[in-house]
Design a protein that fits this description.
2 strands, mainly alpha
Length: about 110
């Protein structure tokens, strides 16, 4: 699985997948298709607040909107990175791929 890679770095991603596959003497299927993007802000916010990424994402979504704060309808909270949602989605995709691969492996064991 690739981590801390920029989404726009497709050549870097491709090369990394090729090198990992070569280390395992396997095809590209050995490397997860899902990856976790690089976001220092999200990593720092989760450490500082003692939250998991999906919990931080929930805080961001439930927090007051800028126009509510400006009108005085809500009080400003400490800033949370908007990238938390994207990183949470990445981690969910990785978890789904793990479950999918485990299910496929178990199905092969049953038929063998």
């Amino acid at each position: 699985m690739l981590t801390a890679v920029g989404l726009g770095a497709s050549a870097v991603q491709r090369e990394a997948r090729e090198q990992i596959a070569a280390l395992f003497n396997a095809d590209h299927e050995v490397v997860f298709t899902a990856m976790v993007r690089h976001s220092e802000a999200t990593a720092q916010a989760t450490r500082e607040r003692g939250l998991l990424v999906h919990e931080l994402d929930e805080q961001v979504r439930k927090g007051p909107k800028w126009h509510e704060i400006r009108r005085g309808d809500a009080k400003a909270q400490s800033q949370a990175p908007r990238s938390a949602s994207s990183v949470a989605d990445d981690l969910q995709a990785v978890a789904q791929e793990i479950v999918s691969r485990m299910s496929a492996a178990e199905a092969l064991e049953v038929t063998a």
